[in-house]
């Protein structure tokens, strides 16, 4: 079955919340989609939940990995599956939701501007105390024009949950070119997305929302533990992002220094690794 949009669910042991997340896509006011549940050798009832849902709606199907993949590899597989299957694709975790107009609004944004590779919206970030609505900073838009004039923000402020936005299929090369550079799943979303932001490849949609549930323990599971590993990750992140100056308009040394400062600050804020009390 062909569709304009493919939603890929890379899932491992997500039985407790998977049906609700699948239902959130089924209930979208945009119907020209299909969904792939990428089951990463779950040991709970994920398979049973997925199979029952697929029986109810033929737009949903299952692909099961033969062996369990590390999270970074499974997400990479999901990205490649989505890019091969449709004009547009997005990822969805087993416990995340979105507004009913999510697919519709993001497709419209990409249809309106062929140059954009990613459409993204505000994030409702839920925890035990409720939720906060996360918006990008206004100064990250029209980045290249500002950079050419010597204006660089101190921080590249945008929700890392934009990794669950909608991509054009041809965005796969940009995603994969930097996907494994950090060598660690923690922080990889922000690291990869930074290129989309500084190259002005993002179409921002303010009137849809992505609902993200905090508390999965990802930082504890994947984050660096010791000082040396944290420093290494910060440096890889900083210099990897700084190399993007080669894809920006020509600029003087002062502007490049500001860009480096932004990359260093972004590495600190996105990884949450504090090396010293002021760094």
Keywords for this entry:
single chain; 11 strands; 41% helix; 7-stranded mixed beta sheet; 279 residues; 17% strand; alpha/beta; 10 helices
Number of helices: 10
Instruction: Tell me the Rg in angstroms.
Output: 19 Å
Return the string of H and E elements: EHEHEHEEHEEEHEHHEEHHH
Main sheet overview: 7 strands, mixed
Q: Looking across the biggest beta sheet, what order are the strands in?
A: 3-2-1-4-9-6-10
Strand coverage percent:
15-25%
Q: Which stretches are poorly predicted, pLDDT < 50 over at least 5 residues?
A: none
General form: globular
Subunit organisation of the chains: single chain
Estimate the mean pLDDT confidence: 93
Number of strands: 11
End-to-end Cα distance: 51 Å
Structural class, by secondary structure, is alpha/beta
| Share of helical residues | 40-55%
